[in-house]
Structure formats: structure tokens, C-alpha cells
Design goal:
It is built from eleven helices and no strands. With 215 residues, the chain is mostly helical. Helix 2 packs antiparallel against helix 8.
């Protein structure tokens, strides 16, 4: 199977099963999505969704969160991973939005990267989910599944290299959906430990490149 054929097969598989797909994070605005994505770093969406209703009820927008102190935000986010750092980042991010962007989340990729707590993965999620851009956010699930399915070579040993490889081979208008397809496949089927190959519809064509597939 050539690389082109592999991509076509994998993408067709997901197209047929979940033609409409998006993030599992719950949010009510672009700002709230940004907060949720920052909180989701090295943490499950399920956990984030458990804490954000109370957080957003108290701090629904950048203006309100910019007035808070990190220790106040900490009380709402203390059950996520790295709560001290994330609480500080959220306050600093909200204050930068107020001082530099009139309280609105910028659409520009480089401007997103300047925000505290925002790395390349988070910026790509915002580009794809909030602004409908062609972007490929590479988290641990996307990284793992891309390697195991043989979509990227072993030399693609960083998230950025995986992102570049996927963006070269996935149609631009499907990049955002492909991110969610790969992510959800990794979250529920091709799990980090003991992948569920027996119930995977891609098992017959999967080279199962387990070694080196995890960050």
C-alpha cells in the first residue's frame, strides 16, 4: 500500500463513520474554548468539562478573568494537571487579551502563540475549531495514532514534524476533521497502553508500529 493509498483508506474509514466531528470540550464562546484548551494540556477533556461550568459562571470572559488573581482561579482548576501554572497562565492570558486585543481572542496564529499558556497545539486547535482554518493540532493521541497507522515515518519524532507530514498529505479542507478523527481514535480505540486492535476497523491495514509511537 502506497502512502497515498494509506491516507485515502484511513480518511475514507473515518469519513464513513463520523462525517461530522468536533472537540469534546464544552464551551460557550471563543474565549471559553481557549480557556478549556489551555486547561486540557496533559489532562482529559472529561476532567476539564467537570470544572469549567463553575469557572465560566464566575469568569465568563476575558474582562472578568483579567480582574482575578491566580490563587482565585486555582480554587476552580485545582483538580486538573499543573493547576498552579495553568491558573497563572489563564490570568496572564486574559490580561493580555484586554491590554492588546480589546478582550477578544486573536485569529492570527502568531498572535495566539504570544498568549501565556498557548503553544503550537493550542493555537492550532483555536485555528481549526474557533476560526474554521485548515490546521492540524498534534497532541499525544494524534502523534501516537499517526505513527501506529504508518501515516508518518519514524523520523517524524516531534509533534511539529508529525504536523508537517499530516498537513502535506491530508486535504486542506479536512485537516481540522482529521485532527479530531485521529484524536478520538487514539482516545477510545488505539489507546496508549493495550490498544483495542480487535475492535479496530483499521486493524487489517495497520502496520502496528507500536515502538516509538508515544511521546
Amino acid at each position: 500500500m502506497t502512502k497515498k493509498e494509506r491516507y485515502q483508506y484511513v480518511l475514507n474509514y473515518f469519513r464513513e463513520r463520523t462525517p461530522e466531528v468536533t472537540t469534546e470540550l464544552e464551551f460557550g464562546s471563543v474565549f471559553q474554548l481557549l480557556v478549556a484548551v489551555i486547561l486540557s494540556a496533559q489532562c482529559t477533556d472529561k476532567r476539564v468539562n467537570q470544572i469549567t461550568p463553575a469557572l465560566f459562571a464566575r469568569y465568563p470572559d476575558a474582562a472578568s478573568m483579567a480582574e482575578a488573581e491566580p490563587d482565585e482561579i486555582y480554587e476552580y482548576v485545582k483538580s486538573v494537571s499543573y493547576p498552579n501554572a495553568k491558573a497563572r497562565h489563564l490570568v496572564e492570558m486574559a490580561r493580555m487579551l484586554m491590554s492588546d486585543h480589546g478582550g477578544e481572542v486573536p485569529e492570527d496564529f502568531d498572535q495566539l502563540l504570544r498568549l501565556p499558556g498557548v503553544g503550537r497545539k493550542t493555537a492550532n486547535v483555536m485555528q481549526a475549531v474557533a476560526f474554521g482554518r485548515s490546521a492540524m493540532a498534534v497532541d499525544t493521541h494524534v502523534y501516537r495514532v499517526s505513527h501506529r497507522l504508518g501515516l508518518v515515518p519514524r523520523t517524524a519524532n516531534t509533534p511539529y514534524k508529525v504536523e508537517q507530514e499530516l498537513m502535506k498529505n491530508v486535504p486542506a479542507d479536512e485537516a481540522a476533521r482529521a485532527h479530531h478523527w485521529l484524536l478520538l481514535h487514539g482516545r477510545y480505540v488505539c489507546t496508549s497502553r493495550s490498544p483495542h486492535c480487535a475492535k479496530c476497523g483499521l486493524s487489517d491495514v495497520c502496520p502496528k508500529r507500536i515502538e516509538g509511537s508515544r511521546l
